[in-house]
Design goal:
The chain is of the alpha/beta class and 394 residues long. It is built from eleven helices and 16 strands. Strands 1-2-4-3-5-16-6-15 form an eight-stranded mixed β-sheet. A four-stranded antiparallel β-sheet has the order 10-12-8-13. A two-stranded antiparallel sheet has the order 7-14.
Amino acid sequence: MASELRDRVLEVDASTREHLQTHRRELHAVPELGFKEIDTARYLLERLDPLSVDQLQTGVAGTGIVADIKGGRPGRAVMVRADMDGLPITEAGDLPFRSTRRGVMHACGHDVHMAVALEVARALAGNRNKLPGMVRFVFQPAEEIAGGAKPMIEAGVLEGIDCVVGLHVWAGLPTGQVSVRSGAMMASADGFTLIVRGKGGHGAMPDLTVDAVVIAAQTVTALQTLVSRETSPRAPVVVTLGSIHGGSAFNIIAGEVVIQGTLRTFDAKLRPRLLERIAELAKGIATAMRGSCEFRLDSAAPPVVNDEAIAGLVAAAARDVLGTDAVVPFEPLMVGEDVAFFLDERPGCFFLLGSAPDSGPVLHHTAEFRVDERCLAIGFRVLTAAVLRLLEAD
């Protein structure tokens, strides 16, 4: 019966391909930022409701959706996670389904994740009598600001769940390949703000001021020594200061500068120490230069760590579907993902789905980001096969 069920739900016929492409394109055209995914949630709800799922919750963690499909046979409880939000980017290019929301774009593939999860839900719901266990589909808001996973957990989405699985399209992999890794596969992602305060004044009378721009400049340089001089060369760490804002005119000394940055590391013990040192160093420099500095942690997500046993099952499912050569290794990525919160609570696996267009990789989080839509069917087959294998695992 298990073999028959796999054959039925893994079939990618013309209808499945049409659904996958339609969902992806329609979602791509109406992206929304974190915790504002109102139209996105409505779209998902309108497509989940006809499936007669056993339980359908809306408004979870604000805009999230949770749908349970219970099988007719005993088995485990597996959670499938898909993220919903877009990025504050104006899309470039002339795709016929390009974003209709100026300044917002699905520039990281979350439209693909939702489309694949929707179609997996449709396939399983249509075969629920032969399905073992229960599958919970969690459509999560606000991944890009690491804000949605924790409130969904607090709302109880992990109650009764044995393991978690999810995928992420990856432009660094050719279409047709997937990567599964056990252990740490993505870094922690902490976003922080430094507010440097001095005393503004006339550009020609610097001795009567405390120049926040000069303090900020010293701070930017000094923070890089946390990587080069306070961290082992064998421990990958990134401190990036991506935004600096201050001042109003060429002849006015700024009284305040705001710096925004991010810390990335795989080491859960090193992470809090470095965050503490960022605050200490920035405050110390500001004080020494007669100013002050406020440190604020804006967002935080731990490293993404896959369970060895679950990752092994997912990799085996992918090899069964695609062949051994299509499942390739990869080095851990310094990007972050708040799926980490789910994987901290339950064993699970988050894997990469190759999506690079034939023209070559296009960077995530850019206005030019594109995916090869052939990855949709591949993602559907691998995710479905992984879910079925996890449902029946001992």
